[in-house]
Amino acid sequence: MNSLLLSLLQGGPGCEYCRITRADVKTALGFNSFKEFGSCIPWPCFELLGKKDPQICQHYVHGPNNVEVVFVNEPNSESDTIVVSWKPSYYGIAFLRGFQVSLQALGGSSFACQLFLFHRNLSLPASQSKRVYKSDPFPGLPLGSQYAVTVMALPVPEEWERFYRSRNFSSR
């Protein structure tokens, strides 16, 4: 298996809900998309999932609920670390394939992204909308800065306005 992402997409064994890295996307796509898109991983639904099942990219999935920003104890008093938590919407949950969490400094160019995918063969029941998901930590946020965090439900349809939730916050 070349990467965790290929294993997930092919329905092979692996984790149920996995963090996907830049290297995983590069291996699956065959090119490095990060020069064009900065540190954020774009979500090319048809490229990653639609080849075997074009219908998978045509379903509407509502954005997540209860997006929260939690500050984590940071040994460095010069910066903050946060973790983002959320619950999936039950609207379209059976078609949910994962989440993309992005963090952007307001008024600046700093941008970070994390991509989380479900196993290809997984279809979530509505009861899973009560489950709380969490990002990996976003460390090193300068004090006194303002940020916007956005959690997108995947796949992102081409024409749909309710696939994400954003929240603004300030570091200490």
UniProtKB/TrEMBL annotation:
UniProt xrefs under Gene3D superfamilies:
Interleukin-17 receptor A/B, fibronectin-III-like domain 1
Query: From what superkingdom does this record's organism come?
Result: Eukaryota
Claim: Cell inner membrane is one of the keywords in the record? no
User: Gene Ontology terms, cellular component aspect?
Assistant: plasma membrane
Q: Which organism is it from?
A: Pogonophryne albipinna
Q: What is this protein called?
A: Interleukin 17 receptor D N-terminal domain-containing protein
> Keywords assigned by UniProt?
Cell membrane, Membrane
Principal localisation: membrane
Q: How does it sit in the membrane?
A: Single-pass type I membrane protein
Q: Where are the transmembrane segments?
A: none
Q: Which residues form the Interleukin 17 receptor D N-terminal domain?
A: 57-155
Q: Where in the cell is it found?
A: Cell membrane
